[in-house]
Write a structure and sequence with these properties.
With 140 residues, this protein is α+β, with helices and mostly antiparallel strands. The protein has helices at 9-19, 28-40, 88-102, 117-126; strands spanning 2-6, 44-50, 53-65, 69-79, 107-110. α1 crosses α2. It starts with a strand and ends in a 14-residue tail after the last helix. Pfam families: Acetyltransf_1.
Length: 140
């Protein structure tokens, strides 16, 4: 088991097959463009490798706001569809908790789409998160 912060183009490309499970319409070029823009905005990408293969990927950033103080925002945490239900999401989340503590974060916050019931079950029943609100979106 190995955790790696993804920085190089080859490392980012190696994470693409996992992330398209979450964003299947995203081309490889779009993925690299978005990821580069996210990195420029202080996002960080972490992977969990098992036997040399990436099985889980997370994109995170450190944020501060008035209602939450300093916190770790998880933009995405995706485990490969063929590797789910093996505990890798929990392993990755525990790594991110340790990372958040080292970064002096007081909370971890994430967004999960309304239709992702299985993910909600994981966050609430296995990781101790609580639902706290709604996210609203306006397409431009």
């Amino acid at each position: 088991m190995e955790f790696l912060e993804l920085r190089t183009k080859n490392e980012l490309l190696a994470s693409y097959p996992v992330m398209i499970d979450f964003c299947p319409d995203l081309s490889q070029n779009e993925y690299l463009d978005y990821i580069q823009e996210m990195i420029n905005e202080a996002h960080r990408l972490f992977s969990l490798k098992i036997n040399g293969k990436i099985v889980s990927v997370a994109t995170v950033s450190i944020r501060t706001d008035l209602s939450n103080g300093r916190h770790l925002w998880i933009s995405e945490l995706v485990t490969s569809s063929v590797e789910r239900s093996k505990g890798y999401g929990k392993v990755m989340m525990n790594y991110l908790k340790e990372f958040a503590v080292k970064q002096n974060c007081k909370k971890i916050i994430l967004f999960s789409g309304l239709a992702r019931h299985q993910a909600h079950h994981f966050w609430e029943n296995h990781m101790g998160f609580e639902k706290r609100g709604f996210v609203f979106k306006l397409d431009m």
